[in-house]
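Q: I'm writing up a methods section and want to include an example of the input and output format. Could you take the sequence below and give the corresponding predicted structure tokens, formatted cleanly so I can copy it straight into the document?
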Amino acid sequence: MADWRPMLNHREGGIPRIMGVINVTPDSFHPGSRSPKTLEAIARAVRMAEQGADWIDVGGESTRPGATPVTIDAEVERVIPTITGIRDALPDVCISIDTRRAGVARQALDAGADLVNDVSSLSDPGMLDVIIEHGCPVCVMHMQGLPQNMQDNPRYEDVVAEVRGTLGSATGHLMDAGLEPGMIVVDPGIGFGKNLEHNLALLSAGRDIAPSKDMPLMWGASRKSLFRDLLGRESSGGRLPGTLGVAAMAPSKGVDLIRVHDVVDHADLYAVMSALG
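A: Here is the clean output for your methods example:
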């Protein structure tokens, strides 16, 4: 297993750790992230590690707006051979499993994953037990609604306070069960039941959404509809410049991990930022 503890916190100078996205799916929102064939996904992960990824995030179910859920068997068939292959090829790189299902998480951790990235904030009643049994870190993300309906008409009175409160409830259950705050990553869920105003408020808030100062913060804004609404970039293929703009702000907002489709571009960005001090 990889040494994941130092990889939960940003580098010196506030530079976030980079998490590269591997979607073992045919329908994730950004076509460039789709690697539905196992060998293709493994090769992509190796390339990301060479480019500077600290984490590889493997997902077998699209959670884009309007996505159709897949069966647990289909999700397992997609992610487990991929994780096994990545772990064999990259023994020192940290791997996260992007799943809402405890059964998938359990098998992924047994196959070599280090962290569970749960976009539903422990909606599966069995997920808490899996996390505690394995003693692994977890990322809990805020989502209003479900992927099928989350963008229909998202509403908040105070989006920052409400996101912090929901994350506080989920992380509270984890801490009550014995998980230390430093092992609980929080994610505001950019684009998951939020409009442009909500997304910008959450990004501006930075660490203010974290229920505890000891909890690492992750952002996942890469190529999302935020940039369609803000910049008029209808296709995800045209959203890299906006994505890098958000990434450039991440160090000043206390972000520890940044989940991205384009590893080399982010690695170059942060190399230049580090050189300039």
